[in-house]
Design goal:
This protein has nine helices and eight strands. By secondary structure, it is of the alpha+beta class. The chain folds into two domains: about 50 residues, no CATH class; about 130 residues, no CATH class.
Length: about 200
């Protein structure tokens, strides 16, 4: 990536981008809106934008949001490679009362390097995401309710919470028992075994 802006700085462009991301934007997105890194640093020093971490900024007076930490972590790790998952996905889907101590994201195993961020737990996967595995919530790429349930079970979350999240997804019409069974058969792992042995009742 070059440091040459595509045009003169367009503050409206940057505001529009940030407004879709809970006030956050990346240095790359600012560059696309015509801001050189030098100009971006200038505005950060003057207080117009807040520098949250390397390559990530936020509009100074943008209202707070309950999902802003997930958004910030997702953008910092990489919006094109990372997906909110596990407990963070449960939170975005409102499927559980579990309180996460970290923001949970999943990236392909080959992208695990350089993803260490305080307060963020990055999971890796060698299973390619299927088209129905990823949806968007609150402007964030997130694992679908079904994939989320399978992931938290694989990660060792208590069966009580796994079953409750699955039932909540079914009750809301986000999935059906047959969809869970079909996906579990292809996904394998703990959830398939728990279904087969009756440890999880849908």
């Amino acid at each position: 990536m070059t440091d040459k802006p595509s045009s003169s700085p367009d503050h409206r462009c940057l505001f529009d981008v940030a407004s879709e991301q809970k006030g956050y934007f990346t240095a790359s997105q600012a560059l696309d809106c015509g801001f050189s890194r030098k100009l971006l640093a200038y505005h950060a020093q003057r207080g117009r934008y807040r520098r949250e971490r390397v390559g990530l900024y936020r509009l100074r007076d943008y209202p707070s949001d309950m999902f802003e930490e997930i958004m910030a972590a997702w953008l910092a790790v990489g919006r094109d490679i990372a997906v909110a998952s596990h407990q963070s996905a449960l939170e975005l889907h409102d499927l559980s009362d579990l309180i996460a101590n970290h923001v949970h994201l999943t990236v392909p195993r080959e992208h695990r390097e350089g993803t260490k961020i305080p307060g963020v737990r990055v999971h890796t996967t060698t299973r390619p995401f299927e088209p129905l595995d990823i949806v968007k919530r609150e402007g964030i790429r997130v694992t679908s309710p079904i994939r989320t349930v399978l992931d938290i079970d694989e990660a060792g979350v208590s069966l009580e919470h796994v079953e409750a999240a699955a039932r909540e997804a079914i009750q809301r019409g986000q999935a059906t028992p047959s969809m869970f069974h079909e996906r579990a058969m292809r996904y394998g792992g703990r959830f398939r075994n728990h279904l087969a042995h009756g440890h999880v009742q849908l």
